[in-house]
Structures are given as C-alpha cells and as structure tokens.
C-alpha cells in the first residue's frame, strides 16, 4: 500500500499549500508526497517539505490519517513548524520542478489566507474540512482518521 506524508504549515493567519495545474485540472493540496520504501513517514515529510519549499521542518505532530484513492492509499498529515527562512521555492532537483520544466504540469508553493481556505478547490474535501475545524476549534490531541 502506497503512503504519502503531508504538512500543515500555518504562519501569520496563512496556510502554505501547493497549487497544481495537473493535466488541466487546477487545485490546491498540502505540501508533501510519496513515502519511499526505505523511509519513515516522518523522514518523507521532512524531505518533501524541503524539496517543495526549501523549508526545514523543526517540529511536527501527526494530526490525521486520511484514507485516499490511488496513488496513495494512506496520507499522514502532520502539523509542522519550520525554521526561519527568507523565501519559499521549489528546489531545482525536486520532482515538481522537473515536471514544471517539462511542462507536464505546474506546481507552485503559495500562501493562502485562512479565511479564504474554505473557498479554494482543495484536493480532498474531508481533509479541507478537518483542517478548517482544527484551525477554528483546535487540532486533535491524538491522530484522527478521516
């Protein structure tokens, strides 16, 4: 079963998301991606955040496990803190940067205001709703299945 690790990164009333235009379908998703066979979900989280944003994760806590369709049957969603940074950008050696160069799709890390988060086309409604609830009422103390 394939797994993915994704990051909820919130700063100054904004969420850091990945805006994708994949084969003509435009949507937003959390930063993150595939867990390789030789790594833990936590290692994949740190690697994926670095590849997709250039940011270094300093702290994380598992919030949600989302059952999902292929290619990732389970997604592990972590609330993250990151080290101070100057700018956010795809790293040149990332899978997303390569796909952007080949013009197969576009991937761009972007900040979205929390108050606008419910209005955007997010990849999975159940995760979007769980994040909105977490922001408004507090995230779960134990990982929740969604």
Describe the structure.
The two termini are 17 Å apart. The protein is globular, with a radius of gyration of 14 Å. Strands 1, 2, 3, 4, 5, 6 and 7 form a 7-stranded mixed sheet that branches. It is of the alpha+beta class. The protein contains 4 helices and 7 strands, in the order βββαββαβααβ. 31% of the residues are buried. The chain has helices spanning 41-53, 95-101, 114-117, 125-137; strands at residues 3-11, 14-22, 25-34, 57-67, 74-82, 105-113, 144-145. It is 25% helix and 40% strand.
Q: Helicity range of the residues?
A: 25-40%
Helix count, DSSP H or I runs of 4 or more residues: 4
Low-confidence stretches: none
**Structural category:** alpha+beta
Count of distinct strands? 7
Outline type? globular
Task: Give the termini separation.
Answer: 17 Å
- The proportion of residues in beta strands is 35-45%
Order of helices and strands: EEEHEEHEHHE
Radius of gyration: 14 Å
* Mean pLDDT across every amino acid position: 92
The largest pleated sheet is described as: 7 strands, mixed
């Amino acid at each position: 079963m394939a797994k993915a690790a994704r990051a909820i990164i919130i700063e100054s009333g904004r969420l850091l998301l990945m805006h994708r235009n994949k084969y003509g379908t435009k949507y937003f998703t959390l930063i993150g991606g595939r867990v390789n066979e030789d790594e833990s979900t936590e290692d994949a989280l740190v690697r994926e955040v670095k590849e997709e944003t250039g940011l270094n994760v300093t702290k994380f806590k598992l919030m949600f496990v989302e059952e999902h369709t292929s290619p990732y049957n389970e997604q592990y969603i972590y609330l993250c803190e990151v080290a101070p940074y100057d700018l956010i950008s795809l790293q040149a050696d990332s899978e997303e940067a390569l796909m952007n160069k080949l013009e197969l799709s576009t991937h761009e890390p972007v900040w979205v205001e929390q108050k606008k988060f419910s209005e955007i086309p997010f990849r999975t409604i159940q995760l979007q709703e769980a994040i909105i609830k977490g922001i408004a009422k507090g995230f779960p103390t134990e990982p929740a299945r969604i």
